[in-house]
Amino acid sequence: MSKLSKGDIPMPDCLSCGRPIPPDDSGSSVFGCPKCGEVKIFRCSSCREFVNPYECPKCGFEGP
Ligand SMILES: [Zn+2]
Ligand SMILES: [Zn+2]
């Protein structure tokens, strides 16, 4: 039995900078890859603000 501690919310990693996105990062966004649609793209608020590029790990699509 694995035990889950309270408030142990899995944090997705930002695909641009690789840092975990805290749940209270209200400017972050998540969307399906525009090309393959199979990968969820997570971006933190600062990467959105600075329009940092990302690359889909599955199909290699580069955005924004
Ligand atoms: Zn980021
Ligand atoms: Zn893709």
Give a verbal description of the structure:
- This protein is mainly beta and 64 residues long.
- Helix content is 8%, strand content 19%.
- The N and C termini lie far apart (42 Å).
- It is built from one helix and four strands.
- Strands 1-2 form a two-stranded antiparallel sheet. Strands 3-4 form a two-stranded antiparallel sheet.
- It has one domain.
- A hairpin with a 7-residue loop joins strand 1 and strand 2 (40-43).
- The protein binds zinc ion (2 copies).
- One zinc ion binds at residues 14, 16-17, 19, 43-44, 46-47.
Brief characterization of the structure:
Helix content is 8%, strand content 19%.
Outline the fold blueprint:
Elements: E1 29-32, E2 40-43, H1 45-49, E3 54-55, E4 62-63
Antiparallel strand pairs: 1-2, 3-4
The protein binds zinc ion (ZN) (2 copies).
Give the names of the bound compounds: zinc ion
Structural class: mainly beta
Distance from first to last alpha carbon: 42 Å
Shape summary:
globular
The amount of beta strand, in percent, is 15-25%
So how many helices?
Answer: 1
What's the total number of strands? 4
Strand order of the largest sheet: 1-2
Count of the separate structural domains = 1
What is the makeup of the main sheet?
Answer: 2 strands, antiparallel
**Mean pLDDT over the full residue set:** 90
Order of helices and strands: EEHEE
* CA-atom Rg in angstroms: 13 Å
Question: What portion of residues is helical?
Answer: under 10%
Catalogue the unreliable spans.
none
